[in-house]
Fold this sequence. Notes:
3 domains; mainly alpha
Amino acid sequence: MSSTPLASPTSLAKASPAPSTHSALSPAPTAVDRPAPPKKDARFWLIFLALFFCCFLAALDLTAVSTALPAIAAEFESSEFSWVGSAYALTSTALIPWTGGLAAIFGRRPVMIAAILLFALGSALTGAAQSMAMVIGGRSVQGVGGGAILTMVEIIVCDLVPLAERGAYFGIIGAVWALASTLGPPIGGALASAGAWRWLFYLNLPLAGLALTLTAVFLRVKTPQTTLKEKLERMDYWNVVFVAAATSTILGLTWGGSTYSWSSFRVLVPLILGLVGMVAFMLIERSFVKYPTVPFDILAHRNAILGYFATFLHSVAVLGVIYWLPVYFQMRGDSAVQSGVKLFPLSFTIAPFAIIVGASVTITGHYVAQNLLGWAFATVGAGLYTLLEYDSGPASWAGFSVVAGIGLGMLYAATNFPILAPLKPSQQPYAITFFGFVRSFGQLFGITISSTIMSNQLSMKLPDAFVGGEITGDAAYALIPQIKNLAEPLRTEVQIAFADSLVVLWQVLIGICGLGFLVSIGLKSLPLTMETDAENWGLEDRSKAKAPQGGEEEKVGGGGK
């Protein structure tokens, strides 16, 4: 969900009343109303250097491991290889609210440092694993660290940059993410092919060391000056309910259509328990918790609801493409490294258009047109993918990927502005944490729904001479290396079955992107604030380094009850 309360540590001493919905949603003065913020100094840019490097570290590992999965599974002779990715996704998604909450209570810098250390620990455990269980355990620890790193990067950007200027910075972060995501699969595939998959994780250690050094030295931002007792009083211990519910839901989505059928009680029970648990958690937060995790005020504006829904749809579409487009290349006979390289037309289009759109929002102060245009390109790109045949040439798959990449890249930088525009700067870190959860959950859902579609289609379309009966998404991955060794005409028949199955997936993505376009029609253009919450979360005041820096004067998500 969102971060735990970003309410003021000083509000423990000054029990300020909760703001009304009206006051919470009144935008702060905009560029028209106040002068531009002061010029950013060297400290600011050094902090952003640290943030960009941390983002690159987490994103690189997330995508690189996919091409190393077969080698890991082969070494341990395990069929549980899908959990190498799922364990990371589960912990990184379910624990996002804890990240924002701990950052509000203990400060940004300590939480970022802890996240990097956890990521490094998980990398070491995975690299040294002597069993598949150790690999999965290590990836779980990595997920906690990786998810926290990405969440903290966005929270700190909110702290230091006003919304009216933030587009360019979020665009650059999106480009860093896209670049790392692009480089990850070829690196992972190359190490796996060389029999050195463990170095995929060991190499994280010096990178994490550099990220830790940059963060420790340069990330000098204000920290709440409260006692340990006050910090513990602000902890939302009911968050455990959310973590359990989210974990249960994610388990059901992960198992559904891959490990077990969707009608299996092993899928239905965790899904039902998880959804019921989330509803119960929200009711408890709204009615009984003094400092709640769920900031209901950020959901009081239509723009925010539409923006979160669009973010979810975008994440589903992105993962549907990134997860299965490499399959299209590999079933044609390309290696993991080659398929990663052939993703470049997509990835290297996403990156610059994320920056372009972010900059355009900063220059114009408007974001609705960019959302609509992004969804239009994404819808057309998904439609073009339906024209791909099993033997289509580079002009087709590369050209289609450029069109899809333009749309998906634009949306990387555009969907957060409708969410943040109605809010005060003090509320925006809440909203960006919830944004991170929705995005992560959407990515997981995108993998799940696309795998289910491919399972159903391949079960119907693959020739019996190759495989008979129902096939899961994981099994489809396992079958791909066999295709290039098949004799004709069976090899062509199997390739056509894969290509035709992917057509159905692309058709579903047309609907998802089209729905995103319709949702964005309902967005309202709101002014972008030129303020930040620098008094509470800005750069350290070096002239008053030892003076207490209070937290926020206003508490979001309800007052004391």
